[in-house]
Amino acid sequence: MTTAPAQAGWRFRQPSVIPGFGLTLGFSLAYLTLIILIPLSGLVWRSAALGWTDFWAIVADRRTINALEISFGTAFAAAAVNVVFGTLVAWVLVRYRFPGRRIVDAMVDLPFALPTAVAGIALTTLYAPNGWIGKLLMPLGIKVAYTPLGIVIALVFIGLPFVVRTVQPIMEEIDREVEEAAATLGASRFQIITRILFPGLAPAIVTGFSLAFARGVGEYGSVIFIAGNLPFKSEIAPLLIVIRLEEYNYPAATAIAAIMLALSFLMLLVVNLVQSWSRKRYG
Amino acid sequence: MEVRVANVRKEFDRFPALHDVSLDIKSGELIALLGPSGSGKTTLLRLIAGLERPTKGAIFFGDEDASQKSIQERNVGFVFQHYALFRHMTVADNIGFGLKVRHGSSRPPAQEIRRRASELLDLVQLSGLEKRYPAQLSGGQRQRVALARAMAIEPRVLLLDEPFGALDAQVRRELRRWLRDIHDATGHTTVFVTHDQEEALELADRVVVMSQGRIEQVGSADEIYDTPNSPFVYGFIGESSSLPVKVDNGDIWLADGPIGLSAAHAPSGEAMLYFRPHDVELVDGCSGCIAGTVAASRRVAGTRRVELEIGGERQRVEIELPVDHPAAQKSRVAFRPRRWKLFPAA
Questions:
Q1: Residues of A in contact with B149 (CB under 8 A)
Q2: How close is the nearest chain A Cα to the Cα of B7, in Å?
Q3: Looking at the structure, do residues B88 and B191 belong to the same domain, yes or no?
Q4: Can you list the domains of chain A with their CATH numbers?
Q5: Is B210 strand, coil or helix?
Q6: CA–CA separation, B346 vs B325, rounded Å?
Q7: How far apart are CA B119 and CA B294, in angstroms?
Q8: Are residues B305 and B193 in the same domain?
Q9: What value does the mean pLDDT of chain A take?
Q10: Please, what is the Cα angle at B79 between B26 and B149, to 5 degrees?
Q11: What b-and-e string marks burial along B70-103, b requiring 16 or more CB atoms within 10 Å of the CB?
């Protein structure tokens, strides 16, 4: 494989001999338009009707900014935690054979299936000051429920399968021989992990991170139970949108939604650029 | 570095892959492990490398018992069939990897590692490709990089596992000659595994023929080809034909007549006669020869292969004739093997 010379301008990749290029592309575009593009452009349209100054007043509001900070901050922290432990879980599932492995493997998907409200209530019960775990943490001065820490825990629960399921298949593809080659060259187990395995997994880990992060930013159901929802302290942006809606303050709701949309899109775009850069490099 | 494999046995889940194998490899030798798949040749190579541990027995590098050492400490260069290059590293980083992971004072400075990498690239004739990634190289180029990477650590032995197995025939032949040149230039003790007999016979100083977890024969290409010591080696290396015969008082009999060959020391009784299809002389009339009717005739490059049915049992053997030889058309052909060997009947 050699690198292709830079092409002048851009064009569609040559479609294969198998027919259906026009049909499938047309269908995909129509589908995306219907399901994603139209609702989102409606959102932008409504907030645009607000006018720039009003829009900015809503966005720059202390409460809005706090809610955005909490949403993005906790989602980031939770995704970071999930990267570490999700990779670990994937490693154990891929590398070891132990009784009950299939059951653990299936359990990883539970956060996908469980209604998020159920997860939120269960976690709140556990971590509330009089709950099983909360009781143990209380004497240490750690308060989980009704704080941003509680939000992080809920988002860790929700986001775990995203990391595990993106990293796992890539990990399964790792060639045993590459590790053996590194070992014959004198690399210790630790050097093999940090210099050989991790760089190979990094793109998958980044993808898992961005999925868990995106999911965390948008999460609502589980968080509202454990967060306590104190304005300026533990109120997430999606909840603020709902509050504005209940006040019939539609412009404010759309404005917050629009700014969330913009921020999320920006972050996912950066992640994608990083990935395509690394793909170009390592092929 | 001399390598001595002493009475090594290897079992995988109680299934024996190697039975009591012993082998002495001389310093600077280029030696081939040749055998069909499942013969244990790759297992033997991996045992020498330390990628597997022997169930019984030991492996010595010089006088020291290497079986007590980890892979990392053994300092062997290993080349895999599918290259096993590090995809996320440039060619230069791949080659320098073994030096970079060293600790403390044994690690050369970065500049020295770079110099060494480009030196090795020159040796494997890939100068100037330092900055490429493995994905940007052809199969043959990747395998050269893999060899350079293995040689960078100044290995005590170089082990190659079907190094050309994944490449097409043209590149294989080219790399074969090239590997011989590299070996002659660097003098590393080298062991390579192959199932391709042409590759083994052409390239190696000595060939180790293996079958079913045992070493059948060790010898130079000439010894292996001219004096095979078992029916397996006769059948596996080159072409061979065989016939069930009887030995009576030192004379070899086929059905009811002697075939004009004598084996003075062979015990009387049933035996198998092995010979090379091209190593026969045709005879006229048959008093003391093998005669049969032509059952099939094929043109193979410069010769003609004739299949003969011999005797009442219609035992088929193949012999080779010159293309223009009239015997090829005759329905009855008589011949006598020029060089042959008897083995006890199975």
A1: 181, 185
A2: 24
A3: yes
A4: 67-235 (1.10.3720.10)
A5: strand
A6: 35
A7: 60
A8: no
A9: 87
A10: 100
A11: ebbebbbbbbbbbbbbbbbbbbbbbbbbbbbbee
Question: Quick check: A5 pLDDT over 70?
Answer: no
Residues B200 and B291 in one domain: no
Q: 């603020």: which residue's tokens?
A: A240
Q: Which residues of B touch A170 (CB under 8 A)?
A: none
* Distant-in-sequence, close-in-space partners of B46: CB < 8 Å, separation ≥ 6: B52, B161
∠ Cα B117 B118 B123 (to 5°): 95
Q: How many domains are there within chain B?
A: 2
- Residue at B50: amino acid letter: G
Question: Which residues from B are below 8 Å from A183, CB to CB?
Answer: 51, 71-72
Give the domain CATH number at B271: 2.40.50.140
* Same domain for B253 and B158: no
B268 exposed, middle or buried (CB, 10 Å; 0-12, 13-18, 19+)?
exposed
- How far from A273 is each of A268, A269, B46, B223, B274, CA to CA, in Å? 9, 6, 42, 62, 68
Q: Does A283 touch chain B (CB under 8 A)?
A: yes
Same domain? B100 vs B123: yes
pLDDT per residue as tens digits for the range B109-134: 999 999 999 999 998 889 989 899 99
Domain-terminating residue out of B235, B252, B270: B235
Instruction: Examine the domain organization and report whether B214 and B246 are in the same domain.
Output: no
Report the complex ipTM.
0.83
**3 state SS of B295:** strand
Enclosing domain of residue B116: 3-235
User: Bridge partners of B247?
Assistant: B252, B269
User: What is the Cα gyration radius of chain B?
Assistant: 25
Identify the pLDDT of residue A10: 60
- Residues A166/A211, Cβ–Cβ less than 8 Å: yes
